[in-house]
Amino acid sequence: QVQLVESGGGQVQAGSSLRLSCAASGRALKNYAVAWFRRAPGKQRDFVAAVNWSGDDTYFADSVKGRFTISRDNAKNTVYLQMNSLKPDDTAVYYCAATGRALNITPYSNMEYQYDYWGQGTQVTVSS
Fold it and tell me: In this predicted model, what pLDDT tens digit does every residue of 55-72 receive, in sequence order?
């Protein structure tokens, strides 16, 4: 099993940038594809981005495409979500999730059921 811990959240103004980190322990992160999801207040949890096990393939929600990037450093057992040009609509709790069942990006990489391991989340608040 793998344990995931998110960090890097905070409160920023619109137009700012943040970088979230998802640190893994228990098992090497190279054995997992990883995704970020987010839950805004009063809304369901939505897909944000995913990266395959090696880091050479990614997938983004339309709402963040061109503003967010996802990357990973398997030597550090960490996945990153770089968020630029933040908007108030990006305010949410951000979760990272991992799956060992599908190491490469598929059309279903945006689905919660693909992921077996979840972190506790980190809050991102963007003010206008």
Answer: 999 999 999 999 999 999
75: left (phi over 0), alpha (psi -120 to 50) or beta: alpha
Q: How many CA atoms lie within 13 A of 13 on its CB side?
A: 0
Q: Please, where are the H alpha helices in the chain?
A: none
Calculate the alpha carbon distances from 57 to 33, 53, 60, 79 in Å: 10, 8, 10, 13
Six token digits for residue 47: 């897909």
Percent of the chain with pLDDT over 70: 100
* 75-114-44 Cα angle (round to 5): 110
63 to 2, 26, 89, 119: CA distances (angstroms) = 29, 33, 10, 22
